[in-house]
């Protein structure tokens, strides 16, 4: 079973009473794909229960019947219910939920992996790949997005000097704290 097709799954997840907010691979890209396409999403905390598949005609041999039973037992019993799913122009390395606002931060996503995979010999591909590597290493700074949890819309965007460390963000007392790759802690306060 593939996690993102049965329950909400991602690289980073935050939850409130009824929803899961996450950043992870798009569910169409979990298996048998080379491009790594990611999305920011909101889903119900409890996945939707599926009806069991209708029984087929019984198989004629014992081995075929066992195979049928195994297939039926392994069929997904739930699926996630997504409220929204958005592409985001950054690789999310840090995420925090504060009330009805989602904060995400990470290096910019410069390349379109699907396009590069389809045409790896295209002009400027090597240059774009080097730029993406530089961005992932923190040499191009980072982005901080403020996102509405109700619709997934971007409310604000800020540029950061360097990238945050993995899962290095917290919110407390009206402030946002980011542990940065350069060893500093950044503290931001609302207006």
TrEMBL record:
Residues 57-74 have a biased composition (Basic residues). Residues 43-79 are annotated as: Disordered. This is Uncharacterized protein. It comes from marine sediment metagenome.
């Amino acid at each position: 079973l593939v996690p993102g097709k049965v329950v909400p799954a991602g690289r980073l997840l935050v939850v409130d009473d009824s929803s899961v907010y996450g950043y992870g691979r798009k569910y169409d890209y979990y298996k048998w794909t080379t491009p790594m396409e990611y999305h920011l999403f909101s889903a119900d905390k409890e996945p939707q229960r599926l009806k069991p598949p209708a029984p087929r005609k019984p198989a004629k041999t014992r081995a075929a019947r066992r195979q049928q039973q195994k297939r039926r037992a392994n069929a997904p019993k739930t699926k996630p219910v997504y409220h929204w799913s958005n592409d985001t122009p950054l690789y999310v390395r840090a995420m925090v939920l504060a009330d009805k606002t989602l904060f995400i931060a990470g290096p910019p996503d410069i390349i379109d992996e699907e396009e590069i995979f389809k045409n790896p010999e295209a002009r400027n591909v090597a240059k774009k790949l080097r730029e993406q590597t530089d961005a992932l290493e923190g040499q191009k700074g980072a982005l901080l997005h403020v996102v509405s949890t109700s619709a997934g819309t971007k409310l604000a965007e800020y540029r950061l000097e360097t990238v945050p460390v993995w899962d290095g963000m917290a919110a407390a007392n009206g402030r946002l704290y980011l542990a940065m790759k350069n060893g500093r802690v950044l503290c931001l306060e609302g207006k």
